[in-house]
Amino acid sequence: MKLKKLSTLLMIPALAVALSACGGGEKPTKEEVTNGLSSAMEGQIDQATLDQLGGDALDNYYSCIVDGSYDDLSDDTLRSLADGEDPSASTESDDYKVFNDAVNTCAQSLMDEALSNLEG
After folding, report:
1. What is the DSSP code string of the chain?
2. For 20-77, what is each residue's pLDDT tens digit?
3. Which residues are CB-neighbours of 58 under 8 A, at least 6 positions away?
4. Is 16's pLDDT higher than 50?
5. Which residues of 89-118 are buried (b: 16+ CB within 10 A; e: fewer)?
6. Where are the domains of the chain?
7. Cα–Cα distance between 82 and 114 in angstroms, integer?
8. Is the pLDDT of residue 9 over 70?
9. Exposed (0-12), middle (13-18) or buried (19+): which is 7, by Cβ within 10 Å?
10. Cβ–Cβ under 8 Å, residues 80 and 22
11. Which of 15, 54, 60, 92 is the most exposed place for a label (fewest CB within 10 A)?
């Protein structure tokens, strides 16, 4: 059951990029994007999952996603993420693919950390 919740958590950021909204303005900083992603995800994570993973692990996960995708995402997508909104990007777009690749790469680190916490 815990792994099911965790796998759901890992997919939420990828889904966020596939949904609709529109960004604008100049390119936000990595910190702004990370904070926006964290804020957007806050309501999607139940307390039990947060307690299990810990805030530091989630912060590292969001930072990993942003670090892995920031340079290759459009300014509009970055602005939407920084604003805590769902950016517009079809599942066929380059932004979606870049973001999804970052989520998948970072998910392994989060899973490893979660399993370590379960064992310890």
Report:
1. -HHHHHHHHHHHHHHHHHS-----SSPPPHHHHHHHHHHHHHTTS-HHHHHHH-HHHHHHHHHHHHHHHGGGS-HHHHHHHHTT------TTSHHHHHHHHHHHHHHHHHHHHHHHHHH-
2. 344 445 899 999 999 999 988 887 888 887 787 777 888 899 999 999 999 999 999 9
3. 38, 41, 45, 50, 110
4. yes
5. beeebebbebbbebbeebbeebeebbeeee
6. 2-119
7. 26
8. no
9. exposed
10. yes
11. 92
Question: In the block, which residue shows the tokens 């490893």?
Answer: 112
Confidence of residue 115 (pLDDT cuts 50, 70, 90): confident
